[in-house]
Automatic annotation (TrEMBL):
Keywords: ATP-binding, Kinase, Lipid biosynthesis, Lipid metabolism, Magnesium, Metal-binding, Nucleotide-binding, Phospholipid biosynthesis, Phospholipid metabolism, Transferase. SUPFAM superfamilies: NAD kinase/diacylglycerol kinase-like. One of its GO terms (biological process) is phospholipid biosynthetic process. It comes from the Bacteria. This is Diacylglycerol kinase (ATP). GO terms for cellular component: plasma membrane. InterPro entries: ATP-NAD_kinase_N, Diacylglycerol/lipid_kinase, Diacylglycerol_kinase_cat_dom, Lipid_Phosphate_FormReg, NAD/diacylglycerol_kinase_sf, YegS/DAGK_C. Belongs to the diacylglycerol/lipid kinase family. It comes from Proteiniborus ethanoligenes. Residues 7-139 form the DAGKc domain. One of its GO terms (molecular function) is ATP binding. It holds the Pfam family DAGK_cat.
Amino acid sequence: MHIGKVSLLKKVKVIYNPSSGRQVIQRRIDEICKILLDNGYIVGKFATKEKNDAMQEAIRCCKEDWDIIVACGGDGTVNEVATGIIIGGRKIPVAILAAGTVNDFANYMGLPKGSKEFCDMIMDENTIDVDLGKWEDKYFVNVAAGGFLTNVAHQVPTESKNALGRMAYYLEGLKEIPKQMFNGINVKISSEEYTSEEEIFLFLVSNSSSIGGFKMLAPKAQVEDGLLDCIIIRKSEIQDIVSIFINILTGEHVNHPNVEYFKTRKITIESNEKVQVDIDGEYGGTLPATFEVVPRSFKIFC
Ligand SMILES: Nc1ncnc2c1ncn2[C@@H]1O[C@H](COP(=O)(O)OP(=O)(O)OP(=O)(O)O)[C@@H](O)[C@H]1O
């Protein structure tokens, strides 16, 4: 890991999604702002109201003289802040406070959640430059996915997430299993490392190893290797699918003959069918898609 130092950082903009996770973040944000103010930082707060607010605010931060952004929400909020910083064109370091329902990226990075530990992380000024994934003008910090159950994340209503947290995803997933269990997708996959035309069940193009709350889904993924980890699960008999899904818990699923696992800089996936693509838990569009890595383009505190 290459850890850098940032010096004389003083103006902090806290961008938070008040609807993310189970809406317990307001008090934590107040605590964090107080600690930062007590330590000489200038603090501004911005609450998002709807899609793209976090992105627009991050773009504004790049144009103004903000030194640090605190991104508080789930993977979707972190995604918007990262996208805004890329568009804004100034690599402002970001401190990620996980407050969403799943928070795959923050969990993978092992980022602190307690107010004091979180502020210590900012004041220690250790940062790391991580990769982002890109699809046309869209970016992802964690994962782009299509196929079996990948639509669940963007289908669960905010009210259910607030009431049930992660359980909302499990319930939606259970509802969808019988509908999707036998749906294969015919795709054409093109990359330097793997090319095929086949019927698949699911594809994942990932930056970190943690996807949908499963910590080992892309077991060899590293966020600073300049590569995206691809997992293709072919259409399989039910007993194979069960075996693959059981082994996801340990990362052994990638050794199953119906699973293809490789790293790449760029991959194109096409289909004649209408296949939705999920980007960091939000709806991103439909295939065809070319995903590529933008190495070390996002600076975060760690
Ligand atoms: N005030 C708001 N009320 C409702 N929805 C909002 C608000 N602000 C932002 N959003 C929506 O929430 C999305 C991001 O959600 P986020 O990922 O932060 O939380 P989550 O879905 O609870 O967490 P996770 O992605 O970890 O499951 C944004 O893309 C936007 O569409």
